[in-house]
Design goal:
- It is a single chain.
- By secondary structure, the chain is α+β, with helices and mostly antiparallel strands.
- The chain is 18% helix and 28% strand.
- A hairpin with a 2-residue loop joins strand 2 and strand 3.
- The chain is globular.
- The chain starts with a strand and ends with a helix.
Length: 315
């Protein structure tokens, strides 16, 4: 792999015991006169996984703790050329500037290409709309993509046009500093009008395509829910994410006996309203803007199918 750039420095004695990834993006490191502009902690961790960060000549793991005078070499690989094509697919744009673009993703649209599914994704549409001006940090298949929502989940999603914006938003996600509110229709009624599910999520032990509550190998996951309205046999709820694990809301609400209407993976295999997947909508997305440093929040209106369901189910 061609190396675009490399950074070479020594760790001062006062940094001993610090985690390498934390130290390199800290003010203490900047105060030494070294610059790590455009490089975030999450990107550093990615480089470590790929063996591009060397300490005393050897690749180190993410949790490496510094020793005084460690020799550190950070190799930054050149971005690979895109292997996917732009497509003129209409986008419902909620907000856009030279750094970010917020999209109201429709039902059925896959966010980024994957082997065997290289066309008609949100990335294909973004490549056309943004004329190639998307961050390259997540590689050739996911330019600009800093987070994702499921194919059959609708609503607000942000893509980043620059690496600076991407690194900034990625760190906000890691620090749980982003407002993310989802609206869902779920089975049954709740005993309490509001609550929290705090249960780790990991791969299902028997079905690797599914996620599950996994106390042994899961990652911490927290979902706060609030009942908006009781419907005919269902509840209309607002879910606020504290973390953002794969299928988090679907797994968490199913685990407490309230699977999402239409979710045939974590709920009933029957589809009483001829739905295509779960009734889940990413309504609100907000965070500090990476450049202006002002709080920016968008709301994605409910899709028509969701509004029609609410009308049918209203008591």
């Amino acid at each position: 792999m061609k190396i675009l750039d490399n950074k070479y420095f020594f760790a001062p004695e006062e940094a001993e015991g610090e985690r390498l990834d934390k130290y390199l993006v800290s003010d203490a490191f900047s105060d030494t006169g070294n610059s790590m502009e455009n490089i975030s902690r999450s990107y550093l961790q990615k480089l470590m996984k790929e063996g591009h960060v060397l300490v005393n000549g050897k690749a180190v793991k993410q949790n490496y703790r510094l020793k005084g005078n460690d020799e550190i070499i950070l190799n930054i690989p050149e971005a690979q050329p895109l292997a996917i094509l732009p497509e003129n697919i209409p986008l419902d744009i909620l907000y856009e500037d030279e750094h970010l673009i917020f999209i109201n993703k429709p039902k059925g649209m896959v966010v980024h290409p994957a082997p065997g599914h290289m066309e008609h994704t949100l990335v294909n549409a973004l490549l056309y709309h943004c004329a190639g001006q998307l961050s390259g940090i997540n590689g050739i298949l996911r330019p600009g993509i800093v987070h994702r929502i499921d194919r059959d989940t609708t609503g607000a999603l942000v893509a980043c046009k620059t690496d600076i914006a991407h690194n900034f938003v990625a760190d906000l996600l890691k620090d749980h500093s982003i407002t993310r509110k989802y609206y869902a229709i779920v089975q049954g009624y709740f005993k309490e009008s509001a609550g929290t599910v705090d249960a780790p999520i990991g791969r299902h032990p028997l079905d690797r395509k599914k996620m599950a509550i996994n106390e042994k190998n899961g990652r911490r996951a927290v979902t706060h829910y609030k009942v908006i309205e009781e419907l005919k046999g269902y509840s209309y709820v607002e879910c606020t994410l504290e973390t953002g694990r794969t299928h988090q809301i679907r797994v968490h609400l199913s685990s407490i006996g309230h699977p999402l209407l239409g979710d045939t993976v974590y709920g009933s295999a029957k589809q009483p309203f001829l739905l295509e997947g779960q009734t889940l909508h990413a309504m609100t997305l907000g965070f500090i803007h990476p450049v202006t440093k002002e709080y920016l929040e968008v709301e994605a209106p409910l899709p028509e199918y969701f509004k029609e369901l609410l009308k049918k189910l209203t008591k």
